[in-house]
Fold this protein.
Amino acid sequence: MLQMVLQNSISGMAMGLLYGVIGIGVCLFWQTTGLINFAHISSAMLGAYFFYTFNVMWNFPIIIAFVLAVSLVALYGIVVLRGVVYKQIMGRKGGRLEFIVATMMLNIFLLNLVIVVWGGVPYPFPSIFGSPMNPLRIGRVAIQHHSLWVLAFTVALVIGLNYFFKRTLTGKALRATAQNKDTASLMGIGVGKMTALSFALSTGITAIAGILLAPIYFVSVELGGGIIGIKGFASAVIGGLTNPFGALVGGLLIGLAENFSVFYISSSYRDVITFVLLVFFLIARPQGLFKKM
Amino acid sequence: MQRRKIGFSIIALFVVLYPLLTTDTYKVYIMNRSLIHAIIAMGLVTQVGFAGQISLGHAAFYGIGAYTSSLTVLNLGFPIWLGFAAAVLVCILCSVFLSVPSFKLSGFFLSLTTIAFGHIVWVIIVNWQKVTNGALGVFNIPPIRMFGTKFNNTHFYYLLVVTIALLYLFIRRITNSFIGRAFMAMRDDELAAECSGINTRFFKLLAFGISAGFAGLAGAFYAHLSGFISPESFRFAESTKFVGMAVTGGLRHLLGGVIGAPIVTFLPELFRFPGWETYYMMAATFIILMIVVFMPDGLAPLLEKGFNKIFGGRDDVKGGSSE
Amino acid sequence: MRKYFKVLPLMVLVVTLLAGSVAGAQTIKFGLVAPFTGSGSILGDYIREAMMLAVDEINAAGGIEGRQIEVIVYDDEAAPATAINVVKRVIENDKVDVVFGPNMSSSVLAVHQVAADNETLMMVGATSPSLGYDRTGNPWLFRLRADDQVRVENQADYAVEVLGSKKPGIIYGTTDYCTSARDVIIARFAEHGIEPVAVEQMREGDVDATGQLLNMVRAGVDSIMGLTHESEAAVFVRQMRQMGVDVPIVGFTAWGVPAFTDLAPEAAKGVIAVQSFTPEDTNPVVQEFVQKYQARYGRLPSDPGQAYYDGVYAIKEVIERVGFDKHAMRQELENFSGYVGLQGELVTDEKHNLSRFSLISEFQGDGWKIIEKY
């Protein structure tokens, strides 16, 4: 029984980490723009599909495929998301509502675009993060190599972001811009450049997350249209939206709650637990688990 | 003024003659679907556009309405009109659950709550098999009958047109009253509204209730029009479609829902060229995306301007547009 | 991307063919309603390819009784609400003579009444038992594949009689395809005096089944019945292997197609599945079909494509027997027999199923080994 509980916790945490990685991108975007991008998860989908195209279809080396895929998605973030959607809507003193709807429609369009270009059939992802057939075994508890990769990446990401925002000039400028655009520009910060940077950062990091998700989710439209996007929002909200570390903890909480609700309650109502948690946190503790970073 | 009357008559004539102009019942059917969507979009215009309370969970009310009406008619032997009433009532009751979070939340956080609500309702519909028949869906839902005739698509069309006209008058009455002004005050600045003595909780309940009731009514219409419902039709994607309709038509315009819904519903159908079965959706969603991004006010104000240009008349924007 | 470029010239071909046939004198119109963009889009591609193979063969040989076949294809997104739109369009607007599809059971339930109202033949590949003539009472609805009732019962029988399972576990999806199979298999196990010890749900799009698997282990299952869609099947077997759960696993039709095995080729080794079709079938008729298909599309055919290939030829046979009158065609289809399709004779039974063919096979890593044919 103990082994089962352990196995369940470890698998739950592995999933939770993935939700957390998506949540980090949500936090980043919120921190720098004060908005939530409902096409957020599309960046993950695009990242996975680009990487698959470069690496598997065109046989580029992994590193090159990775860099190309992530920069392409960051470029999409700057050109499409910021250059067209954000500028158009904010330029007309449009509100959050218009931004929500526009990004939602962008998400739907991107889904259909992917279906046309790559087809709706999921592709198997190459096992570059270790074979799923031979997990690490401690006793009878199995841990996937892939989960360790995700763990390493997320830890590095959280530390890196922390350093970036607190210690580097660009990071500080970014935070200043997020807090008050007018004051920031008076201080000589290029507000336009900073917004562009924040768009590129959040889409690029989400693209990496997409590549990390693909071994589990396959390279599939499920990445962009499925429930994972909302679980990413949920982990960010539970973590307090301003703290990447919080998003990670929020993700872990959701992952564990899901797996144990299957274990002790019923597999039929697994997804409900995420939403109940989300609503509970929104109402009872809207500031999330953690204070502002 | 004479020319305006001509303009209105032309539109009215087209609306009345539409099902008679074509022998193709498919076109009438799609129009009926659009009109059903229009009811939901009208509710959303009231709730989102006028009262500023976003909802991305309206597929849930649509579903609750459809299931309530068909199950009460099939299992409890309700007459259909009572099924409709039950659908609206149950939806209004459910909307109370959803509006409670709105007392504390707004914007993105409220939209996340409504998404969560939509998903929870969907999971319940799928898993509560004893009542909803789960994924298999409910079939043999009786069509509407009146004076002994079974309603076909054309009858249905006229019923929907009349319903929408009544709902339009209802909304216009509301938005031109103190309720509408309270809605807009709440939307533009909640704190200021509260300070000037507006009970925002009450008006939030009211906004959610109206649009949930509309969606429930639409759900009941859909159930009795198609004769079959299953959980697939009430997914999250439908909710986004409904909001997309309201925005395409014009969130701040009384006619936004009525104009947006047919456009969004017909667009994919227009692109079903031979050999385009993979591309049509991309093309349709691209156009909607362009409208939403480049015309955030929607098409209704544009059409109104066009109408005024051709048939002359008042240039002031009619209805509840406050900007 | 490559696939996309391959399909493009094909579509141009189809379009020109259509244009050509419109210009010609009389045609017979077939409608195809299948998923090309939704969750089931892989099926749409297989169905269209197999169906067009039959249509082009017939057209090249002079058509049916001298009339060329014209095909109108629509996407139903595997969603009932869209299926109603396109079936109405294909029947009431395009006025086709025969509708093929939809392929999803819930879509068929939503639309079959349209076919009855317009007295148009509807040939579907959906397999849910709820579509039988005994349940729908729709004389215009016929089914080209074996009923899941038959196949899932075979699956249960195999688990009990061959594998000797006493404590089976069930993993199922949320769509009607999966839940009706779940009901059939539980009923069949009950006939054997067996009650499944764990019945677990896996929602479409789920990528983690640890909790479900642990529940099965806790309940001490000695075999697992897989009743999910393809992607979830891949996730499930992969995790099962990772966690070292070592019991035989028998899946239904979704577990016997490349859409599943391509996603988890290693983990799927040893999976036993009930299939309607496998390109490994040594039947020479099947092999000839496989070769033609591969020569044209560069890949192996897959279930349910073969059913629609057979369906086109069955309609041709019906027309050659009784002419183009739809009522005569319907009557002939009701008592149809004597035509040998890819996998044996097509005979209409009292549930309006034309085929009862199914086979049980084991996945070997590079292909399927047939264990038994029914």
